[in-house]
Amino acid sequence: MAKDKDLPAGKAGAEMRVGGAFEDTGAELRVYELGFHLDPELPTEEVKKTYQAIRELIESKGTLVAEGEPEKIQLAYTISIQETSGRRDFDSAYFSWIVYETTAAAHAEILATANTNKHIIRFIDLLTTKDAARHSVEMRELSSKMPERERVEDEATASAELDAALENIVV
Q1: pLDDT tens-digit readout, 62-100
Q2: Alpha carbon 67 to chain centroid, angstroms
Q3: At a CB cut-off of 8 Å and minimum separation 6, what does 1 contact?
Q4: Does the model's pTM come out above 0.85?
Q5: Angle in degrees, CA 121, 123, 128, rounded to 5
Q6: CB environment 151-170: b (16+ within 10 A), e (fewer)
Q7: Which domains, ranges and CATH numbers included, belong to the chain?
């Protein structure tokens, strides 16, 4: 068993070295990000209630750092879940995220709750920093203010322009 003087700076008393790895005793505060997809078939009010319940649990266990309220999105791939009534496939979901600071023990409770919540179809849990979370919020705000790229209204015109450009290519 390693002594505190053998532990890396900042780890003394918060973690114990066991078999070459560090084991968290749950006393040190860390910043986590919980990103989750909610069932897209839920009524809007139920989505808000589910999000609010998770948010309140996190606030009761730690300090809220940043958050992104539920927003319906198209998924990059289909998520399939086997339920007692059969398999369900999801091509869209309400996505939300919450960054918070808490102890490892409280974090474990939050994850257990997320894992048993029937409205959450998938979640990801990350260890992060307050600065990274704040930067993410700033970048999202900047991107929401930028105008979307103008779309070509007439695809035939775009196709004709492309054909003319290809004819002028010197091989």
Answers
A1: 999 999 999 999 999 999 999 888 999 999 999 999 999
A2: 10
A3: 16, 17, 18
A4: no
A5: 170
A6: eeeeeeeeeeeeeeeeeeee
A7: 29-145 (3.30.70.60)
